[in-house]
Every structure is written in structure tokens, then in C-alpha cells.
Design goal:
HATPase_dom; histidine kinase; alpha+beta; His_kinase_dom; 435 residues; membrane; transferase
Length: 435
């Protein structure tokens, strides 16, 4: 189950804060504990330094009692009997041979931390403290360092959630702005209040919205042009039906029926191209290896009756099978529209040639006709839907080359139109990498 980015960030930051806080608390606790123990050692050492040596001597010579006992802190200060001291009444009875410095000594099943100060081979003073008492005091002091962290960790978790929510607020605002977009005319999204990391995504989304807007504009123009193109033949068909109704005889009715049949055929052809153009814009073809030589051969066979009707020398020039990546149906539609245009605009007793060849790493699909050609200033405009050259004699709809370009863009190929070099006519070239 997918979680929101805000939830993931909040949980991740909270866990990071808790883990970091626990590690910091443990580190602070042990550092404070070590610091307290060092402070206790320093206290023992300082007490030993403050007790004057005269007190040691008096303690040995006169009453042989320990110098001092602090019942609250349980710090014991007593001399060490080194030689000829008899029975000395000291509370701990520490071993006299302890060297200068710190020691941990067990006295009656209890450990004591002892600091020994020596002023010669026979003069020594011991300052001792119970390790249990030291540990209790050190732990009590170290535990106090955990209290701020125990209070800060929940506050940091709350602050992290607030910061994450506020940081992601612009994204929620963007989502709301996208929901409020006009489906017919999308507009670019603003990047002023957006986090820097999200700006590339918004820019990509704006480019997508711009392509959608252009596509919608094309569709609107297509619908308007299609309605305009259909109005003319339908009006002509309506007039021809009226003329057919006014026929006085069967023979005259038959004569008037011929233009009506021609009009219906032109309208059918226009509708076929309209449907093909719309279908080509919406369908995503399956990409697979395609033999363009076989596709060209099929197109020549299918359109040969149209060439024969106009007495056009229609043939094919192809090398061995040449393959590219694409869709067989798409390439068939591309070549059929190109050849159909060539046959329609070529005069009778002319020639149209389809050629498939390789050039380096490219495969070329060519159609050479004998028509009037295209002026240089109109070589790009002829790809617009429903555009026809002024004064063109053919009965085309102006959709053939639009369909061809859409297919070429989907297949990753390139179309070039140029005049024929040998005689009048148009040279159509489709180029694509071999694959």
C-alpha cells in the first residue's frame, strides 16, 4: 500500500530524531558518568593535598586515631601505618604498602576508592570513599542530563511534522491548481512558490500541458476543417438529388445519376481518409521488425487497378528485403497514402515508381510521380490537414500527406519532398534507421 510523501517524510524524520536523541542521550549519560567519577577522584586527591603532614605525625604520635571521617559523604581520611606503629585504630585498616596514586581496595566485602599521598618512605595518607556511594552519586548526576533530551525529542518530532506539512503545502496547492485547469484550454503552472527541487517536474508538466494545448487546437481545427470539407460534397450531392428528381425520362435520370455516383464515391473517399487520419492520431502501434519491401509490394498490388484505369506505368524497384522497426499496418498506410496521391495527381499515360533501397545505415522508401509537383514555398504547408494547392486538378481531400507525416513521427522516420531531377514530378522520400 502506497503511503503519501508527507507521511513517509514525517515517519522517517521522527525515527531519525528519536534514534539520534537516544544515541545522544546515551553518549551524554556515559560522558556525564565518567565526568562525575573523574570529579570524585579529583575531590579525593584535593582532600589529600589539603591535609597538612603535621596532622599525620600527631595522629601517629598521640592518639593513633584516624584523622577524619565524613559521615555524610562517607569520605575517610586516615594515615597508613608503615612501621613501629603498633595497633592503630583506623576504620578501614588499609594495607600500608599502597603506592602513591589511586587504588580500589576491598574492605570487609565492600570496595573503596583510595587515593594515597606519600611524603617519604614512612609517611603516607589515604583518602577513601565507598564505590557504591560514588556510583550512586555519579548515576544521579548523569541521569539529570537525560531530562532535557526526554523533553526535546517529542518537541522535535512535533516540529518535524509541522515543517514537513508546511514544506509540502505548495505541492498541495499545485494539485489544486491542476484540478482547477480548464480541460479545453490548459495553462502553464506557476513555479514562483514551488520548492526548487520540484521546479523541473513542474516545467516538464508545463511542457506536457503545452503539447496537450497544441493537440487540442489541432483537433479543433481538424473538426472545423472536416465540417467545412464535408459541407461542400454534401451540398453538391443534395443538388444532384434534386436534379435527379426533375428528370423527365429514364434515360435522362441515368445520365444525372452518374455525377451523383461520382459524388458519393468522392465523399466515401473523404470519409475514409478522415477516419484514417483520426485513427492514426489516437492509435499507438506495436513496434516490431517490418520488411518494407514486402509492404511496398502489397501497396503496389492493391493500387495497381487505379494506375491501370489511368493508363499509368506503375512499377516497383526494390532490393533484397530491408527491415526497420515499426508497425506493418502503419507503414502500409503511409505508403498507400503517398502512392494514392501520386496516382491521383499524375496525368494519364505517365509513370509512377515505388522504390525501396538502403543508404548507409538508413532504409529509404521512395515514390516518384509525374504530377505537377509542389512549389518550394508550399512544401511544408501540404502537410497541413485539408490543405490543397490552388488550382490542383485532382479530387483529393488534402489529408493524405497529413496522415503520412503523423505516421512518420510515430515511427521515428523523416519525410522529404523535392522535385524530380529527371523530369516534372514529385520525389517523395521516407527515411528511417535500419533495424
Amino acid at each position: 500500500m502506497k503511503r503519501s510523501l508527507q507521511q513517509r517524510l514525517s515517519i522517517g524524520l521522527s525515527m531519525a530524531i528519536v534514534c539520534t536523541g537516544l544515541l545522544a542521550g546515551l553518549a551524554a549519560f556515559f560522558l556525564s558518568l565518567n565526568e562525575a567519577q573523574e570529579y570524585q577522584d579529583a575531590s579525593l586527591q584535593q582532600i589529600a593535598a589539603l591535609v597538612p603532614p603535621q596532622v599525620w605525625q600527631n595522629a601517629y604520635r598521640y592518639d593513633q586515631r584516624h584523622v577524619d571521617i565524613d559521615p555524610d559523604a562517607r569520605i575517610v581520611v586516615e594515615p597508613l601505618c608503615l612501621s613501629n606503629c603498633g595497633k592503630v585504630d583506623t576504620p578501614l585498616q588499609l594495607p600500608p604498602q599502597l603506592s602513591q596514586g589511586f587504588h580500589t581496595v576491598a574492605v570487609e566485602d565492600q570496595d573503596w576508592r583510595v587515593f594515597v599521598r606519600r611524603l617519604g618512605p614512612d609517611k603516607a595518607l589515604a583518602v577513601a570513599q565507598s564505590t557504591d556511594l560514588r556510583s550512586d552519586a555519579a548515576f544521579a548526576s548523569a541521569r539529570l542530563t537525560l531530562l532535557p533530551l526526554l523533553i526535546l525529542i517529542p518537541l522535535l518530532v512535533i516540529f518535524a511534522r509541522i515543517i514537513v506539512r508546511r514544506s509540502l503545502a505548495p505541492i498541495h496547492a499545485l494539485a489544486k491548481a491542476v484540478d482547477q485547469q480548464n480541460a479545453d484550454r490548459p495553462t502553464p503552472l506557476s513555479v514562483e512558490q514551488v520548492p526548487e527541487e520540484v521546479v523541473p517536474f513542474i516545467q516538464s508538466l508545463n511542457r506536457l500541458l503545452e503539447r496537450i494545448r497544441q493537440l487540442l487546437d489541432k483537433e479543433r481545427r481538424f473538426i472545423a476543417d472536416a465540417a467545412h470539407e464535408l459541407r461542400t460534397p454534401l451540398t453538391a450531392l443534395s443538388l444532384q438529388v434534386q436534379n435527379l428528381e426533375r428528370a423527365d425520362s429514364l434515360e435522362e435520370g441515368r445520365k444525372r445519376l452518374l455525377p451523383l455516383q461520382d459524388g458519393l464515391e468522392r465523399t466515401r473517399h473523404l470519409l475514409d481518409q478522415l477516419l484514417g487520419f483520426a485513427r492514426q492520431q489516437s492509435v499507438v502501434s506495436t513496434i516490431e521488425p517490418v520488411d518494407l519491401t514486402a509492404v511496398a509490394r502489397q501497396v503496389v498490388e492493391d493500387l495497381y487497378p487505379l494506375a491501370e484505369l489511368k493508363k499509368i506505368d506503375f512499377g516497383m524497384d526494390a532490393e533484397k528485403p530491408l527491415r526497420v522497426q515499426g508497425s506493418s499496418a502503419a507503414f502500409y498506410s503511409l505508403l498507400r497514402n503517398a502512392v494514392d496521391n501520386a496516382l491521383r495527381y499524375s496525368p494519364e499515360n505517365s509513370e509512377v515508381t515505388v522504390r525501396v533501397r538502403s543508404e548507409g545505415n538508413d532504409v529509404l522508401l521512395e515514390v516518384m510521380d509525374s504530377g505537377p509537383g509542389i512549389p518550394p514555398d508550399a512544401l511544408e504547408r501540404v502537410f497541413d490537414p485539408f490543405y490543397r494547392l490552388p488550382g490542383s486538378a485532382g479530387d483529393g481531400s488534402g489529408l493524405g500527406l497529413s496522415i503520412v507525416r503523423n505516421i512518420a513521427e510515430q515511427m521515428g522516420g523523416q519525410i522529404t519532398l523535392r522535385p524530380r531531377s529527371d523530369h516534372a514530378g514529385l520525389h517523395f522520400i521516407y527515411r528511417q534507421k535500419a533495424g
